[in-house]
Amino acid sequence: MKLEHILLGVLLRYPSTGYDLKKYLDTAGRFLRPNTTMSQVYRSLARMEADGWVTHQVKSRPGAQDYKIFRATAEGTTVFLDWLKGPYRPPEAHLGHEFRGRLAFAGFLTREEVLALVDTELAARYAQVARFRHRDRTLETRPEIPYDAELSLEMQEWEHRRGAETMDAHIAACEDLRARLLDGRPLVDAGPQPTPTVPDHPGVAAATGGEPCAPSS
Q1: How far apart are CA 85 and CA 102, in angstroms?
Q2: Which of 38, 58, 132, 146 sees the fewest Cβ atoms within 10 Å?
Q3: Cβ of 67: how many Cβ atoms within 10 Å?
Q4: 75: nearest Cα among 134, 4, 140
Q5: How far is residue 15's CA from residue 20's CA, in Å, rounded to a whole number?
Q6: Spatial distance between the Cα atoms of 60 and 32, rounded to a whole number of angstroms
Q7: 151/157 Cα distance (integer angstroms)
Q8: How far apart are CA 124 and CA 111, in angstroms?
Q9: Nearest 5°: CA angle at 1, between 86 and 174?
Q10: What are the pLDDT digits (tens) for 78-131?
Q11: Which residues of 147-183 are buried (b: 16+ CB within 10 A; e: fewer)?
């Protein structure tokens, strides 16, 4: 998924300024393409306009600088929908930006098309688990400097189990989404969101710039 696909999807929802697009990437779209700069947004818009994918209209504001409102053209719409509805090839890493990106613009799809996307994702993850879950993870080591082989093996097993648990949780979430799409149930249950438990650890305070937080009840 390219930055241009995200920008086109946002512009097809509503015409936007470059600032609006950057704000989306920093908030609702922050997991689709992290750390996108304003200059990257404007460079992409310039290329997209040169290619005929977007156009802009200058708006004036009393006492303030003029600004540009961008909107997708018919050609840009075709480019976006060709990507969105095109073949989905799940990458090795689950929770990839491509899968998230297509779900983020699910409003331009039908439920049947979303279901097909989820089915493709699930098939790829089932195959990935079957192929790698019980793979031979032994490593030949011949270190020439001090090396804790026992610690290395324990860390390798910890990482394997963490990855397996993450994969299983992703598969379970996709299976639940698939069942809800088939049943016509709401995709999200009503009620408050779960409150995460923040550990009482100095690192948390350092990362947030505050005092250590007490665990939530």
Answers
A1: 9
A2: 146
A3: 15
A4: 4
A5: 9
A6: 32
A7: 10
A8: 20
A9: 75
A10: 999 999 999 988 877 666 788 999 999 999 999 999 999 999 999 999 998 998
A11: eeeeeeeeeeeeeeeeeeeebeebbeebeebbebbee
* b/e map 72-92, b = 16+ CB within 10 Å: bbeebeebbbebbeeebebee
Q: How far is it, in rounded angstroms, from Cα 95 to Cα 183?
A: 24
Q: Burial of 42 by CB count in 10 Å (0-12 exposed, 13-18 middle, 19+ buried)?
A: middle
Distances (CA, A) of 4 to 73, 80, 87, 106: 13, 8, 18, 17
Length of the chain: 217
Q: What is the DSSP letter of 64?
A: E
